[in-house]
Structure formats: structure tokens, C-alpha cells
């Protein structure tokens, strides 16, 4: 693995251990040239998946991007980081197991919402409000009511 600091073509593995509920190997590496230290993750990738966005653009599926969107939704919520990491791995496995090389972004969005809903109501609502892109406050209120997550906590039906 090339050193990201000085570009030296080789680095040494200092430590290697499973992480991510056994779904990944985490390696601590160091560069013999500049002494720089960095971490790499080795994961199974069954196939490359292309995501077809609503705009019609195609982009390679990016696990880190998925992880960032989930990190935003779960920010400051009382959820174990391991739990989130496992959820991400589970979503990726589900996506891969669909056996498609191209998937609409809505498939990923629905999968994330389903997982978040089981995990944390607040994270779910945060993600859904971004993902569904509610144009009107009324749309959002209707959504919350339908999901039984009315913010006021009152039964308004
Ligand atoms: Zn280096």
C-alpha cells in the first residue's frame, strides 16, 4: 500500500485485527521512508454497484458516503458506534445480495430508513426529512402523523 504522506510505494503492517463485527480487517501501517502512520480497512466486495440518482446521473456506490449520511442522522443520539457500523455493513450486504449491478438511489434510501426506524426514531425522522425532501411543512407533519411520530406527542387524529 502506497504511503499517503510521501508516496513511497510500500508500507509495513504493524497491527492487524478484525473490526466491524468481523466484516473487516483493520490494519495499522507505517511507512519505512517517512515514518507516517495510517490505517487501512480490508472488506469483502462482492461486486461493484452503480447508483442511479434521481437526477439521472450514475455514480459508483460509496460505502463512506452512506456512512456519512447515517452519521449525520444519528449525530448525538445514544447509539453505540458499533451498532451503526454493523447496520452499515448489513445494508451493504443487502444491496450486494440483490444481485443487481445498477440500483436506483431510492433502494438505498428505503433500506437506510427501514434500518434507522428500527434503531432510533429521531435518527429516522432526520434521515427521512432529508431523503424525502419535504417541500412543505404540512407534508412533513403528515408524514410524522402517519409514522406515529407526531412531534407534539399529541394524538391529532
Ligand atoms: Zn511515507
UniProtKB/TrEMBL annotation:
<dbReference type="InterPro" id="IPR003796">
    <property type="entry name" value="RNR_NrdR-like"/>
</dbReference>
<dbReference type="GO" id="GO:0045892">
    <property type="term" value="P:negative regulation of DNA-templated transcription"/>
</dbReference>
<dbReference type="InterPro" id="IPR005144">
    <property type="entry name" value="ATP-cone_dom"/>
</dbReference>
<keyword id="KW-0804">Transcription</keyword>
<comment type="function">
    <text>Negatively regulates transcription of bacterial ribonucleotide reductase nrd genes and operons by binding to NrdR-boxes.</text>
</comment>
<keyword id="KW-0863">Zinc-finger</keyword>
<dbReference type="Pfam" id="PF22811">
    <property type="entry name" value="Zn_ribbon_NrdR"/>
</dbReference>
<feature type="zinc finger region">
    <location>
        <begin position="3"/>
        <end position="34"/>
    </location>
</feature>
<feature type="compositionally biased region" description="Basic and acidic residues">
    <location>
        <begin position="11"/>
        <end position="24"/>
    </location>
</feature>
<keyword id="KW-0238">DNA-binding</keyword>
<comment type="similarity">
    <text>Belongs to the NrdR family.</text>
</comment>
<dbReference type="Pfam" id="PF03477">
    <property type="entry name" value="ATP-cone"/>
</dbReference>
<keyword id="KW-0067">ATP-binding</keyword>
<feature type="domain" description="ATP-cone">
    <location>
        <begin position="49"/>
        <end position="139"/>
    </location>
</feature>
<keyword id="KW-0547">Nucleotide-binding</keyword>
<keyword id="KW-0479">Metal-binding</keyword>
<keyword id="KW-0678">Repressor</keyword>
<protein>
    <recommendedName>
        <fullName>Transcriptional repressor NrdR</fullName>
    </recommendedName>
</protein>
<keyword id="KW-0805">Transcription regulation</keyword>
<feature type="region of interest" description="Disordered">
    <location>
        <begin position="1"/>
        <end position="24"/>
    </location>
</feature>
<dbReference type="InterPro" id="IPR055173">
    <property type="entry name" value="NrdR-like_N"/>
</dbReference>
<dbReference type="GO" id="GO:0003677">
    <property type="term" value="F:DNA binding"/>
</dbReference>
<keyword id="KW-0862">Zinc</keyword>
<dbReference type="GO" id="GO:0008270">
    <property type="term" value="F:zinc ion binding"/>
</dbReference>
<dbReference type="GO" id="GO:0005524">
    <property type="term" value="F:ATP binding"/>
</dbReference>
Amino acid at each position: 500500500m502506497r504511503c499517503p504522506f510521501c508516496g513511497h510505494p510500500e508500507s509495513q503492517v504493524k497491527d492487524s485485527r478484525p473490526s466491524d463485527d468481523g466484516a473487516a480487517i483493520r490494519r495499522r501501517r507505517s511507512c519505512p521512508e517517512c515514518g507516517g502512520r495510517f490505517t487501512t480497512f480490508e472488506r469483502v466486495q462482492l461486486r461493484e454497484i452503480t447508483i442511479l440518482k434521481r437526477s439521472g446521473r450514475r455514480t459508483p456506490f460509496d460505502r463512506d458516503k452512506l456512512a456519512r449520511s447515517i452519521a449525520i442522522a444519528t449525530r448525538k443520539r445514544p447509539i453505540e458506534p458499533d451498532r451503526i457500523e454493523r447496520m452499515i455493513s448489513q445494508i451493504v450486504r443487502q444491496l450486494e445480495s440483490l444481485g443487481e449491478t445498477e440500483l436506483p438511489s431510492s433502494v438505498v434510501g428505503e433500506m437506510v430508513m427501514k434500518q434507522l426506524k428500527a434503531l432510533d426514531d429521531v435518527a429516522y425522522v432526520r434521515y427521512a426529512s432529508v431523503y424525502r425532501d419535504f417541500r412543505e411543512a404540512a407534508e412533513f407533519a403528515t408524514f410524522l402523523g402517519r409514522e406515529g411520530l407526531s412531534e407534539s406527542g399529541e394524538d391529532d387524529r
